[in-house]
Amino acid sequence: MKLNWKTTIWTAAAGAAIAAVACAGAWQPVAATAPPTSEPAAPAVGQDGTITVSGTGTVTVDPDTAVITLGVQANAATGAEAMDEVNASSAALTEALVAAGIAEEDIQTSGLNLWTTTDDRGEVNGYQASLSVNVTVRDIAAVGPTIDAAQQAAGPGFTIGGVTFSFADPESVLEQARIDAVDSARTKAEQYAAAAGLSLGDVVSIIEGSATPPLLYRAAPATAVAEDVGPSISPGQLDLTVDISVTYSTTT
Fold first, then answer.
1. Would you say residue 10 lies in a domain?
2. Residue 83 lies in a domain
3. Same domain, 119 and 192
4. Residue 112 belongs to a domain with what CATH number?
5. Angle between helix 79-99 and 143-154 (nearest 10)
């Protein structure tokens, strides 16, 4: 049989090409994979970080607002009689407060109670009723006269539950406290950065907490006050405090 030499040569060449491709695919190098490790990579030199510190600033002011807890109480043979007496006394108390210059919206009922009283044998022998109001006084100088007027109007069942002082517009005076708080935080951050061998950068964030609630004076729990005993009130001063948390950027 006669072979076509052209066809034979082409077939051999094609087979060689296919073998070459297959061989090349078989010997294709594969990149080595590093074994996993549980140790974190070391931070690069100059990598940014942060430091977070607290700062405090305080400003001292004279209080300009007081809240007085005043009340009346009464004892009677029946609950209805005790409540009637308390209602009459509280009405007289409110009228006296308004006459003393207290706005009606600054008088708020804060408590109303009725309970039984007992004798030495534990048997019920009557009832005691009480009512208390929170009175906001916006003139510190008027605190004493306001209490006097309320006492005279309410009679022997008059009670004082406490007095607190505050500053009506703290935002008007807190600027310096905030400046001092930022300075305080900066000083701390510089000390920590120096101790850690870091360079302190710019402020990343500032978060302000609540100001310290002012509570300068509080009387004893509600008790009857004798008519010839006048109140002695000393408002003193208030410390308004601002607490902040500041985060700074750092570099190594």
1. no
2. yes
3. no
4. 3.30.70.2970
5. 140
Q: Give the Cβ contact number of residue 154 at 10 Å.
A: 25
Tens digit of pLDDT per residue, the chain (252 long)?
Answer: 444 434 333 333 444 443 333 334 444 444 444 444 445 443 333 346 999 999 999 999 999 999 999 999 999 999 999 999 999 999 999 999 999 999 999 999 999 999 999 999 999 999 999 999 999 999 999 999 999 999 999 999 999 999 999 999 999 999 999 999 999 999 999 999 999 999 999 999 999 996 665 544 443 333 444 444 456 678 889 999 999 999 999 998
- Claim to verify: residue 113 and residue 203 sit in the same structural domain: no
Query: Amino acid letter at 213?
Result: P
Burial class (CB in 10 A: 0-12, 13-18, 19+), 52: middle
This model's pTM is above 0.85: no
Tell me, yes or no, whether 8 lies in a domain.
no
Domain that includes residue 54, residue range: 49-60+172-210+245-251
